Amino acid sequence: MRAPIGTFDHARPAVDCLDLLTAPVANAVRGWHGDIPADQLIYVDTDPEIADTAGFVEHHGRELLDQSANCVVVVGKRGTESTLAACVVLSRTRVDVNGAVRKQLGSRKASFAAQEIATGETGMEYGGITPIGLPGNWPLLVDPAVVDTPWVLIGSGRRRGKLIVPGKAFAGLPGALVLEGLGV
């Protein structure tokens, strides 16, 4: 199979390689439903040493910067109450944590979650967190530019490997809200 974007040596439907995904991601792929068929979720094998965006696009091509997205875990705080959420933006942008995220979560303060919280709560590896397989009760804030991108490269739950997913699939994930102004 050839990947719809990028030049990867190995691409195959994610449903055919569940053993390469973390348990939460594999479970989400296994139980996939919605407008986008599960076989359109593509897994590509990649080097874990270059999982971060800068190294990845340097190795695989700068054109992927416009087709890649990052998923970050944030925490909103209001008094003693904390809310964990995830945000998905194109890699060439950053998450407006103190504006769009804070307002959407109704928090006084919002920040990126500590690495141990992000990995512990998601069951995914740092540098590979993906919106597919997140806890179902979390808000998932998605920038419209992600949904409007035909194919999006995103983490697979591990540093090794990435998923290539139709952009419109992100709007249908559990807890998803497409939020204008999320990516700046």
TrEMBL record:
Signal peptide span: none
Which InterPro entries does the annotation name? YbaK/aa-tRNA-synt-asso_dom_sf, YbaK/aa-tRNA-synth-assoc-dom
Which stretches are transmembrane? Answer: none
Domain YbaK/aminoacyl-tRNA synthetase-associated span(s) in chain numbering: 63-168
Tell me the domain of life.
Bacteria
The name of this protein is YbaK/EbsC family protein
